[in-house]
Design a protein that fits this description.
There is one protein chain. This protein is an alpha+beta fold. About 50% of the residues lie in helices and about 10% in strands. The protein has helices spanning about 5-15, 25-35, 65-70, 75, 85-105, 125-135; strands spanning about 40, 50-55, 60-65, 110-115. Strands 1-2-3-4 form a four-stranded mixed sheet, sandwiched between helices. The longest helix is centred in the last third of the chain and has 24 residues, at about 85-105.
Length: about 140
Amino acid sequence: MTDVYGPEKRSAVMRRVKGAGTTPELTLRRLIWRLGGRYRLNRKDLSGKPDIVLPGRRLAIFVHGCFWHGHDCARGARVPKANRDYWVAKVARNRARDSAAREALIGAGWRVETVWECEMKDAAGLEARAGLWLTSTP
């Protein structure tokens, strides 16, 4: 199956895919702030450059898009029909990188949490989970 866009249009579409400051990330940041948590963003000195870092609590939070990081929900399990081999390999590389970053942070004494894009739909559950992060000790 061929791509429905030409190379220039496909390039423009892919450039619009954001790596930081996504809607799920902003939603979680607002929630943490409202609950009293203070954080830093995208710390380059930590493995995997976590999206949200609460240094005093030694907590690193990754906000993952289900498709890009291969979550086991309906959206994450979907594999595009066009260029299937590329996308399967791409998501596998992302998952391996995520796992390595997680293990490195845990080895360095950090607590690591991953919030999936699909989990943003359950606001009450997410708020309860974030509340536990902020009340538990490192």
